[in-house]
Design brief:
- The protein is built from 7 helices and 17 strands.
- By secondary structure, the chain is an alpha/beta fold.
- Strands 12-15-14-13-16-17 form a 6-stranded antiparallel barrel.
- α1 (about 15-25) packs across α6, α4 runs antiparallel to α5 (about 100-115) and α4 crosses α7 (about 205-215).
- About 40% of the residues are buried.
Length: about 350
């Protein structure tokens, strides 16, 4: 009997080509669409999301073309948990990463739970990443071949015991090759635009979203410089993130950046770029995909999706905590973001940044 795989189908070109490749490789493919409550049907929403009704129809058309079974799963309540997390992190003065949470809780959590119920051997997605065996014998997430599309950063939270059950069919392909395959096989989404990063905020108004999600918060406060001098008032600290330059509400003679957010006092501190630079960070809830080192160990550290991983040393602190020190200090270390550590192109592990190390 062929191995059964449940595939997260978003209605986009990546997961559609993943479906075609899996079927061509002889798998018994079951397409699953996560219904999250994003029901808009406008052309703009269709171009920016991955979970609307229009996207579900696109995924159904692909499944019909490939002659694979297709089911829509109602994850609206679970997705609400991700939206709550997103809003609450901003009101805690942190910068959230909903894509990481979606991968942990939904795509490789609830989706895989369903897969096991239908006798699946694997769960698959259209991520640009690989599953690889490291020299120490551990199974890890590896970087995708297309470095511009590589999504391994947001997969560092996947539990090591799950990795042998995961397939990333397009991880060895470049984006252009994926679109070419979609066209070659007559998939109706071959020229569909890519979805934006935060699928539940199609108008890019994250501030409006978090305020609507938590309408009773009183967050207005003061904007100060690094000496504590008051520069003005702000309408709410949730509109700021570490490293932000634009939208500060005050004109300066030279560039100024958000360097600290203090929710308790509702104070936002701004400073020069050099004040953003930090020698390291501490992170918690760290998930090791490779073997945890017994002491300080060299690695490469990536601290946000668009950050180039840099040489660093990681030191386990116990109870899921680590300290990471960069070889060269890095700007804009944002609490709430994920730090993903690599050994060459393979994920060593990842955790949630609690604070920047200042010395």
């Amino acid at each position: 009997m062929p191995k059964r795989v449940v595939l997260a189908m978003s209605g986009g070109v990546d997961s559609s080509v993943a479906a075609q490749m899996l079927k061509a490789d002889g798998y018994d493919v079951v397409g699953l669409f996560m219904r999250t409550g994003s029901h808009g049907e406008s052309a703009e929403r269709r171009a920016k999301t991955c979970c609307s009704v229009a996207d579900a129809l696109d995924a159904q058309r692909v499944a019909d073309r490939l002659e694979i079974p297709f089911f829509v799963l109602d994850f609206e309540r679970e997705f609400g948990r991700i939206q709550d997390y997103f809003a609450d992190e901003y009101f805690a003065g942190r910068t959230p990463n909903p894509c990481v949470m979606c991968n942990i809780w939904l795509k490789f959590g609830r989706l895989w739970e369903y897969g096991k119920q239908v006798g699946a051997d694997f769960v698959a997605t259209g991520h640009y990443a690989r599953i690889a065996r490291a020299a120490d014998g551990t199974t890890r997430v590896g970087r995708g071949r297309d470095r511009d599309k590589d999504q391994s950063y947001v997969l560092s939270g996947l539990a090591p015991e799950l990795l042998d059950r995961i397939l990333f069919p397009i991880g060895a392909l470049a984006k252009a090759e994926v679109r070419a395959l979609a066209l070659e096989h007559g998939l109706p989404v071959h020229d569909k635009p890519e979805s934006q990063e935060i699928c539940f905020i199609p108008d890019d108004d994250y501030l409006g979203f978090v305020r609507n999600r938590r309408p009773d918060q009183e967050t207005a406060g003061t904007l100060v410089d690094e000496d504590g001098a008051v520069l003005g008032e702000h309408p709410g600290f949730e509109k700021f993130t570490i490293g932000q330059r634009r939208g500060l509400g005050i004109a300066f003679g030279e560039p100024r950046y958000v360097v600290q957010i203090e929710p308790a006092s509702k104070t936002v501190t701004v400073g020069r770029r050099e004040s953003l630079v930090r020698p390291g960070l501490e992170a918690s809830r760290f998930n090791w995909q490779g073997l945890a080192p017994q002491g300080p160990a060299p690695c490469l550290a990536q601290i946000r999706a668009r950050h180039q991983a840099v040489p660093a040393v990681v030191e386990p602190l116990g109870e899921g905590r680590v300290r990471v020190r960069f070889e060269v200090p890095q700007p804009a270390v944002a609490p709430g973001q994920v730090v993903t550590l690599y050994q060459d192109d393979l994920v060593l592990g990842g955790g949630w940044i609690d604070r920047a190390v200042v010395d």
